[in-house]
Amino acid sequence: MKIVDVSVGVIKQERKIFVSKRADELHQGGFWEFPGGKVEPDELPSEAMRRELFEEVGIVVTKQSPFMLIEHDYGDKHVRLHIFLIEAFDHQPTGKEGQQTQWVELSALPELAFPAANTPIVEKLITEFID
């Protein structure tokens, strides 16, 4: 099975995280997610993350750090998620592609429905920034 590399930005501002909702017709549609997208050929994951966040939510990343790497098999596809913590950026994020978005308190993240591959991200955020 082919591995799909995806870059993800966890946009953090104080004790809130910016999330968006996947369109119903997409893979894992209807779930909340951390913005990001596929890494293009000959593109570094960090470059893909900056590009995707600009395209999807309109921010220019000014401070990022690697957060974690997750591999997950959905059965129909295998994804490798390159997750970056975004703690500084220009402009306010918004749903540039018409997607629903919101800022969520860190403590409320477990209440949202995320794709299974995102569960370790939520758990690590809670552990590192709340516990």
TrEMBL record:
Matching Pfam families: NUDIX_4 (PF14815)
Domain of life: Bacteria
EC number: 3.6.1.55
UniProt cofactor(s): Mg(2+)
Gene3D superfamilies from the UniProt entry: Nucleoside Triphosphate Pyrophosphohydrolase (3.90.79.10)
Catalysed reactions, semicolon-separated: 8-oxo-dGTP + H2O = 8-oxo-dGMP + diphosphate + H(+); 8-oxo-GTP + H2O = 8-oxo-GMP + diphosphate + H(+)
Family matches, as SUPFAM superfamilies: Nudix
Keywords recorded for this protein, A-Z: DNA damage, DNA repair, DNA replication, Hydrolase, Magnesium, Metal-binding, Mutator protein
Entry-linked InterPro entries: Mutator_MutT, MutT-like, MutY_C, Nudix_hydrolase, NUDIX_hydrolase-like_dom_sf, NUDIX_hydrolase_CS, NUDIX_hydrolase_dom
Membrane recorded as keyword: no
Domain Nudix hydrolase, chain residue ranges per copy: 1-127
NCBIfam families: mutt
Entry similarity comment: Belongs to the Nudix hydrolase family.
Protein name: 8-oxo-dGTP diphosphatase
